[in-house]
Design goal:
The complex is a heterodimer of chains A (241) and B (420).
Chain A: E1 2-13, E2 16-28, E3 33-37, H1 44-51, E4 59-64, E5 67-68, H2 74-84, E6 85-88, H3 100-111, H4 115-128, H5 144-156, E7 162-166, H6 174-189, E8 193-197, H7 201-204, E9 209-214, E10 217-223, H8 227-240
Parallel strand pairs in A: 3-8, 3-9, 6-7, 7-8
Antiparallel strand pairs in A: 1-2, 1-4, 4-5, 9-10
Chain B: H1 4-16, H2 18-53, E1 60-65, E2 83-84, H3 85-94, E3 98-106, E4 115-117, E5 120-122, E6 125-129, H4 133-136, E7 139-144, H5 149-153, E8 158-162, H6 163-169, E9 180-183, E10 186-196, E11 210-214, H7 215-221, E12 227-228, E13 230-235, H8 241-255, E14 266-270, H9 271-314, H10 316-324, H11 329-369, H12 382-409, H13 412-417
Parallel strand pairs in B: 6-11, 8-10
Antiparallel strand pairs in B: 1-13, 1-14, 2-12, 3-6, 3-13, 4-5, 4-9, 7-10, 8-11, 9-10
Helix pairs in contact in B: 1-11, 2-9, 2-11, 9-10, 9-11, 9-12, 11-12
The chains are: A alpha/beta (241), B alpha+beta (420).
Chain lengths: 241, 420
């Protein structure tokens, strides 16, 4: 599904260059539930942005569904994003002057679906996430958990193959975080690849595969079976810290 | 192609910051408003002045005499002289470019009331004229008739009077036609009451206070001999009245032994030249109106553009989200330009409407004020309004274009990161 081969990425910081990704090789299969971890500055958000075609890479190759993603026009990238990828953000990023239903329906608007139809579909998705009664509410009338669920509904509405979530629980309390993770798990069970960036170990522990980044390289990949072990090292890290 | 979501977004974006939207729109509003008002006022002045002169023969020139300013052929400078019947005869015979020629005598007004009828007296401007004069400076008879050739030929003691003369010398419900007025000691029968069609006034005083009598009668009855105080000419079709004026001056100087280079001895006035000055003046006013109006409008448009830039900056994150969930750059750009055009056109339309409304109110006031103002019918024509609208749409698009370009240059990733 996703095949990264020796991805390099650096940012121009005026005079100096910041080398963020220093050769990432990563394969993610259809239907996997993956978390990307790492301390701040390790390049995890950059990696997610490249995966989501929000950013270009400098070197290497990125194959998404056997299609090379490189040098695309903004228009092409936008259409591909719309078709393939759903985004969930830490700060929800709902549009403040649109109600929940309109926010969810927005990707379909960009696809050119007519208003009546896309609002009906949006309502369906809101219902799935238990927010049907909130369809007419504005984002500022909803709790963080509700907002994130709206955002997830929005990510799902265009039937993406991949959900990319950047710190989806970063702004939520623990119980709400777990609710959101449950939802993501359900989505994953339906066959959609879910990739989340997080720095919370308990959140990462709920995924099938943890990719740990360190200084722009993949430090280790922990698979489902080894998660118990991972918890153990995580606890040890906590004790030593 | 009505996109409800696009309009909803535009309206909510503008509503989010009412004050700022209002101030921005005000710049454009004011620009268009000023353009309309100034243009209307300029047009009104033009209409007012042109209305006052339209019945006046534009190819006419007028001549009177002044003291000479140069010694010539034994005459000293400062000599007084005067036209005579032989001059007119000679000009009629030898100058073929003339269409109408109308000599005139001025009656005296200086010794107070010169017109008497029973108990009533009045001081009026008395002129001795030829009927041709009415073809140069238009008058219409309100009652009775104008003066005609036979009056002149038979030296009839008849007169036509202005409306003010009728008011002073007759009762309200009295018919002046056939009545007699004693003008400077001689009785004249009133044959018409006349109304001036133009505001150009030769000889001073109010036009309504005019009494016109046949030229020949005046010359004979008041002992003017063969003197002529003044004459008017109009040029034939195809002849420039300015060249005719020069030619006549040359002939008159020769006949009255005046130095050819004496610029002062013949007083003259040429409507054609005045008209040219007028039309240049109005052209200038219109040009100035557009320059100032467009300048003000431009300032407003730059304001819109500036505000749009700020809006883009504020909405960087929102644009980022839209890009992330599949909005194409074209769609974002369309949105911003549409917002800008909408703001500009709305503001401009209000400015246009209020401007036209104000002109209309002004027009009503002017109509109520009557004839006495040189300011008439302020108006904005359709072409003007349409071109203003076109300028608005264009400038709105222009104002939106730069911020839109800026917006699509933002990478979605930068836009999303902007918040943190």
């Amino acid at each position: 599904m996703i095949k990264l081969n020796n991805i390099h990425k650096s940012y121009d910081m005026g005079s100096s260059k910041l080398h963020v990704l220093k050769g990432i090789d990563l394969e993610i299969e259809q239907g996997e539930f993956v978390s990307i971890m790492g301390s701040s500055g390790s390049g995890k958000s950059t990696l997610l942005n490249i995966l989501g075609m929000l950013d270009n890479y400098d070197e290497g190759s990125y194959l998404l569904a056997n299609k090379l993603i490189a040098n695309m026009s903004e228009k092409k990238a936008a259409q591909l994003r719309n078709d393939m990828v759903g985004f969930v953000f830490q700060s929800f990023n709902l549009i403040s002057f649109k109600n929940a239903m309109e926010n969810v329906a927005l990707p379909l608007y960009y696809k050119g679906v007519n208003r009546k139809k896309r609002n009906a579909i949006a309502l369906e998705y809101l219902e799935k996430l238990g927010l049907k009664e909130w369809a007419e509410h504005m984002p500022n009338e909803m709790s963080g958990g509700q907002k994130q669920r709206v955002a997830i509904a929005r990510a799902l509405i265009s039937n993406p193959k991949i959900i990319l979530a950047d710190e989806p629980t970063g702004a939520l309390d623990t119980s709400t975080s777990y609710e959101v993770m449950d939802i993501l798990k359900e989505i994953n069970d339906a066959g959609i690849t879910v990739i989340i960036v997080t720095h919370e170990h308990d959140i990462a522990a709920m995924t099938q595969k943890v990719v740990r980044l360190k200084d722009g390289r993949i430090d280790e990949i922990i698979r489902n079976g080894e998660l118990r072990e991972f918890r153990h090292t995580y606890n040890k890290e906590l004790v030593t810290a | 192609m009505f996109d409800l979501d696009l309009w909803k977004e535009i309206l909510s974006a503008l509503k989010q910051n009412r004050m700022r939207s209002f101030m921005t729109a005000f710049g454009v509003f004011w620009g268009i408003f000023m353009l309309i008002i100034m243009s209307g006022a300029g047009r009104a002045l033009e209409n007012g002045v042109m209305e006052g002169v339209k019945a006046f023969a534009t190819n006419s020139a007028f001549f009177w005499t002044e003291r000479t300013s140069k010694p010539y052929e034994g005459f000293q400078r400062g000599r007084r002289w005067i036209y005579n019947n032989q001059d007119i005869e000679y000009i009629r015979q030898s100058v073929k470019e003339i269409e109408y020629l109308s000599p005139r005598l001025f009656g005296w007004q200086q010794n107070g009331d010169n017109t008497i009828r029973g108990e009533r007296t009045g001081a009026f401007n008395i002129y001795g004229d030829y009927p041709d004069y009415f073809k140069i400076d238009g008058w219409t008879p309100v009652k009775g008739r104008l003066m005609n050739e036979i009056d002149v030929l038979q030296k009839r003691k008849v007169c036509v009077i202005g409306e003010r003369v009728e008011e002073v010398m007759f009762d309200k419900d009295e018919d002046p036609i056939g009545q007699y007025l004693k003008i400077s000691g001689v009785y004249f029968q009133v044959v018409g009451v006349i109304h001036p069609e133009t505001r150009i006034n030769i000889g001073g005083g109010k036009k309504e206070e005019t009494i016109i009598i046949p030229f020949s009668t005046m010359q004979t009855a008041y002992n003017y001999g063969d003197e002529i105080h003044f004459f008017s000419v109009t040029a034939n079709q195809g002849t420039s009245v300015s060249s005719l004026e020069e030619k006549l001056k040359r002939i008159l100087k020769e006949r009255h032994k005046i130095a050819p280079d004496d610029m002062q001895a013949i007083g003259s006035f040429n409507i054609e030249a005045e008209f040219k000055k007028f039309s240049m003046l109005f052209l200038g006013i219109q040009a100035l109106t557009w320059i100032v109006g467009i300048g003000t409008l431009l300032a407003g448009v730059i304001g819109v553009s500036n505000i749009m830039l700020v809006i883009i900056k504020e909405r960087t994150q929102e644009i980022g989200i839209q890009r992330a969930i599949g909005a194409t750059p074209g769609k974002i750009m369309l949105h911003i330009i549409a917002e800008s055009v909408f703001l500009t056109v709305m503001a401009g339309y209000i400015g246009l409407s209020l401007g036209v409304a104000l002109l209309e109110v002004l027009n009503q006031i002017l109509l109520a004020a009557g004839d006495e103002v040189f300011f008439r019918n302020p108006e904005v024509n359709l072409t003007m309004a349409l071109s203003a609208l076109a300028v608005l749409v264009f400038s709105g698009a222009f104002a939106g274009f730069i911020p839109a370009r800026r917006a699509i240059k933002i990478k979605p990733i930068d836009a999303l990161r902007d918040e943190s």
